[in-house]
Structures are given as structure tokens and as C-alpha cells.
Write a structure and sequence with these properties.
Keywords: Coiled coil
Shape: elongated
Distance between the termini: 61 Å
Strand content: under 5%
InterPro entries: Rrp5, TPR-like_helical_dom_sf
Radius of gyration: 19 Å
Number of strands: 0
Number of domains: 2
Helix content: over 70%
Largest sheet: none
Order of helices and strands: HHHH
């Protein structure tokens, strides 16, 4: 194994910090539409009564022709949203 120089280690650390900062900014930006199940679940934990978010989550599954998952999300939404 080749030992890395201090300069290379510093560059790697800066790169990792930049990637982390970018990810944090994306997570904080409310205008970014989630693009995976994990992102939707995270948003639903913070806003369980958001009917718009539940509908977007169902539409996400329907776009992937995952009809059963969309139906399950809809049923969860009806149980979760307080009227």
C-alpha cells in the first residue's frame, strides 16, 4: 500500500466536506422534490399531516408502475393524517 501525502489527505478531506455540505443543503432545501423512498419517508416523518406530500409519494410509486406500493402509501396516509 502506498502511503498518501499530507496534501492528498487534505484534498480528500476537503472533498468529503464539500460533498457533505452539498448533501446537507439538498436536505434543507424544501423546493427539491424527493427522488427515492428514503427521502419521502424522511419528509413524512417531519410532516405526517401533509396531504400533498402523501400524494407526491403515491405518484412517485405510480410513475414506476408500483401500484400496490402506491395503494399501501394511500392507506397509510388515511391512517396517519389527522382530520
Amino acid at each position: 500500500p502506498v502511503k498518501k501525502t499530507r496534501k492528498e489527505l487534505k484534498a480528500e478531506k476537503q472533498n468529503a466536506e464539500q460533498q457533505l455540505s452539498k448533501l446537507e443543503a439538498e436536505l434543507m432545501d424544501t423546493s427539491v422534490r424527493p427522488d427515492n423512498t428514503t427521502a419521502f419517508e424522511r419528509l413524512l416523518l417531519s410532516s405526517p399531516d401533509s396531504s400533498l406530500l402523501w400524494l407526491q409519494y403515491m405518484a412517485f410509486h405510480l410513475q414506476s408502475t408500483q401500484i400496490e406500493q402506491a395503494r399501501a402509501v394511500g392507506e397509510r396516509a388515511l391512517k396517519t393524517i389527522s382530520f
